Amino acid sequence: AALLWGTILLACSCGPGPPSVGAAPLLAATYVLDDANGLGREFDGIGAVSGGGGSGSAGAAVPATSRLLVNYQEPYRSQILDYLFKPNFGASLHILKVEIGGDAQSTDGTEPSHMHYENDENYFRGYEWWLMKEAKKRNPKIKLIGLPWAFPGWIGKGENWPYDYPDITAYYIISWILGAKQYHDLDIDYIGIWNERAFSSKYIKLLRYTLDKHGLEQVRIIASDRLWEPISFVMMIDSELHGVVDVIGAHYPGTKTVQNAILTGKKLWSSEDYSTFNNDVGAGCWARILNQNYVNGNMTSTIAWNLVASYYEELPFGRCGLMTAQEPWSGHYKVESPIWITAHTTQFTQPGWSYLQVDGHLEGGGSFVALTDGLGNLTIIIETMSHNHSKCIRPPLPNFNVIPQRATFYLRGSFYMVETLQVWHSRLDFESGSSSLFQQLHPLQVWRGRFSLDLNVDEVYTLTTLKTGRKCGYPEPPPPQPFPSVYNDDFNIRNPPFSEAPNFADQTGVFEYFVNASDPGDHVFTLRQVVVQRPITWVSDADQTISVIGNFKWVNMTVTCDIYIEKPRDGGVFIAGRVDNGGIYVRHSKGVFFWVFADGTYRVTGDLAGKEILMKGLAGVRDNAWHTLTLNIQGTSASGLLNGYPLWENVTVSSPGNGWAALGTRSFEFAQFDNFHIE
Description:
By secondary structure, this protein is of the alpha/beta class. The protein contains ten helices and 37 strands. Keywords: Disulfide bond, Glycoprotein, Glycosidase, Hydrolase, Lipid degradation, Lipid metabolism, Lysosome, Signal, Sphingolipid metabolism.
């Protein structure tokens, strides 16, 4: 009877029933869930990162990972945001972590800083403000984290280092937090130090002091968004540092922590994880680490990079988001399986709940966690992901085995009176490819505090007292379409909702809408490159600035653009086609680059660095005047026009054979662009 009561009667074909007579008996094991002796660590929530070069499709990925998202038309843009943030709808995220833009490359693009220059403050650049407000609109309780990947150059006074003048760096970061509140009514909950780079104890202490001085005592500090060490060790020997760091955040910890981190007594988070292609293997990776980061590593929050793949797919780490939205021009997006894996945890827990004290390893492989709100509610999440179906991008995953098994749970303490559990189930099917995701099954009857469950491989179960779970959806979005083969932008927009023009993905430098008040009329509204000093970089930004656009598969194209060099003598600008690289690899971009310089010369090069010269000569272009450049690439031949007249032709181009269109400048210098046209 106990077994009968305890097994879900699977009316739908969602998993195995009881083993048939004569079949090999399943491995059977029992597990006890009890709160009589107190609870485990407090749960801090599941989240995702926009930025870090990541979410670049909303305008760019958030950091630059959400680049293309903002350009979606309604209703599709709101639908995507609902799948990410709306409670009891889809991923129902508890935490949103954003890049504090630093004008530099952060993986898939550059995000603009709120202070390009020392005397400059603008809290309406980029798309992270908009994204945080949209998240808060849907879930007022969502937690917000800010973290810099890079910093504007003035902070280092010429050095590629943010800690020589820690008071300036702290002032810069606090300005961002205060601006979030003043201009957008956003309360930032947590602030980080410097993504995956060195920390300075002196700076962290000064940051805490400066936060408190500005009435921001409630903002918590996470350090150091890299590895568990050396931050944990330094906190153990420096009591003042220990006093100001609230959370130790590690990246890609492989579900493991270190002794020093535990000994600090601090909250431990996997503050960046996942970063895996968002197919079913990515979903398996995500399901496994969401549980095992706590089971193996005591981590009470896991944050995915990245939120939504909203950047050109051929940029680094294409489609490493919880869902995909990289086609604002068509309206197409895809709710990938990691969204529904997230829901298994997020829809049935909240920050402030507590984990139960239990060893969550299943005898037959896999894991479980149990959480309670302390008010009688109980949520159990079980995953049985196999090794080959749950590999994350990093670190390497040691071998392990998972087999079908029967798990019997005994509910003790305040849970003994639970009579029914709601059941949500996912099965990742790698044979037929027809996975079943986040399906509600019949409720499970608990008999005298006991129930049993037959678990197959590559499954996720949520068993919960909560009845609020929902698998929501919208009608299918429009079908995918390539980037339009004829594209124009005259940048004539009086009050743009965003500071950057749609679909341009900045890869070094920042290109912003600009109002040219002194212009007689033709070029009042332009696109301007505004970063004039090399930033404190996170990766190797190019020495030139560049923004890419279009379809990476393009072969033959004509690119036309009006250009305006602002820097006398050695200023210069380019337009380009077949550009083959961006993101962290932007320095190595090849393509066909047509340059004109303020000294009256021109060049055609096969690379952004300008080392591979295909043609050069005199053009007669000068600074502070408008000129029109046209680049035509057909097959293995390229030609260029200046102001509508041929300037060079029959230049042989062999590789690359395809790539984006682009525009940019010779150095970190002001320059303007207008009437951009691609065919």
